[in-house]
Amino acid sequence: PSKELASREDTLIKLQQQLEKLEALLQDKDDADARAVLLGLNQNSSRHSRSKIVRFSENEVEVDNLDNSQMLQLHQRIMDDQDQNLDRLSESLGRQREIGLTINDELESQVDMLDDTEHLVDRTGNRLSIASRQLAKVVKRTKGCGSWTTILILVVILVVVYKA
């Protein structure tokens, strides 16, 4: 896996740095600063405080003592990781775009359904108002004749009862 490979590359770079420091220590047996740096002791020496450290994928890599090939390898790995991150970002943006298009299509269909429903409600409202006006006319007509109709029905009943 790429994470394991990156971790192993970090370890290899650190080991190469330690090897260089060890060789420097072997050449100059009394150099206390080289011994402290090799052991990782934190001294306030000017050389150690000015060393450049690059934080890369959870590991810090000291870049002061890297030769050109190691620096090139480190930069290549950084660029590869950035390319992978950009690829993942591109895929994520593509998925977001697809989701956005799907939401847009759904919203358009919902708007169409709302327009159809509004049209049907308007038609039903118009029909209801027409029916209300017709009912009001019928009520007006029957109100005046209602009492005459009742009287006529009672007279018919009296005639039928009287003949019987």
UniProtKB/TrEMBL annotation:
Stated role: Essential for proper morphogenesis of the vacuole. May exist as structural reinforcement on the surface of the vacuolar membrane and be required for maintenance against rupture by osmotic pressure.
Keyword Coiled coil: yes
Alphabetic keyword roster: Coiled coil, Membrane, Transmembrane, Transmembrane helix, Transport, Vacuole
SUPFAM superfamilies: SNARE fusion complex (SSF58038)
Pfam families: SNARE
Cell compartments where the protein resides: Membrane; Vacuole
Coiled-coil segments: 5-35
Record protein name field: t-SNARE coiled-coil homology domain-containing protein
GO cellular component, one term: endomembrane system
GO molecular function: SNAP receptor activity; SNARE binding
Organism: Linnemannia gamsii
Membrane-crossing segments per the record: 145-162
Domain T-SNARE coiled-coil homology: 76-138
Example of a GO biological process term: vesicle docking
